[in-house]
Amino acid sequence: MTATMRLTADGCAATFDPDDGGRLTSFRVGDRELLVAQGKDVFHFGSFVMAPWVGRLRDARLNHNGARYQFAANSGPHALHGLVTERPWRVTGDGELSIELGEPWPWPCRVVQRTELSAGRAMFWIELHARDPMPAAIGWHPWFVRRLTGAPASTELELDVEPRLMWANDPTGLPSGALAAPAPRPWDYCFRDLRADPIVRWPGELELTVSSDCEDWIIYDMEDEGVCVEPWTAPPNSLNMPNPRIVTPDAPLVASMIWTWR
Length: 262
Prior knowledge:
mainly beta; 8-stranded antiparallel sheet; 25 strands
């Protein structure tokens, strides 16, 4: 069993479990835990990295350049959240974890996540390095608690986010390829063109802003356990949509996410 990786800075601490998909299992500001500690399955707690696809891959199948690749279904007929969440990672540097990905993925590649903490700020990066050209998408899936631990009288989380656009879903619940006006809450949708960075607020206790260079955002607020604010480089099933992002040896796929709080 690999030891956890713990990072600390003034007033905050982050703990990663390499054996548990490189998951960020705990993020504390002072004595308050911000992340859901346990869930009904591996996709329902902490904060985890997704690669080489994000969300659902339709029918657990990738069609690329005339070839068809089949993966194990784990969400009805679909394959959910990539291939790195249920595999062990390695600590490869200060604040760095990585994983080498091969079968069943047809293109060998390496995924790296890095984290840096400072007072009032956490910076996260994902890098996907490919040996040969391949389609890919990456992203994060944090679960924020609805009520803070260490604050018995904590009020329930409020999420301040205002997207201009939403990927419209087809009858299967996957993006149809068209953008539309956002649906009313509660949400389990992929959005684009946010008016401002999302703010996760526990009134009277803490306010956390999530910023990212990712173009797409999943907002999921339909469960009692927590709320998800997820920056992704592409929408669900993007690898089967027209013009997916192609990663090459000279052009890795890189994304960043920043949490700031007060």
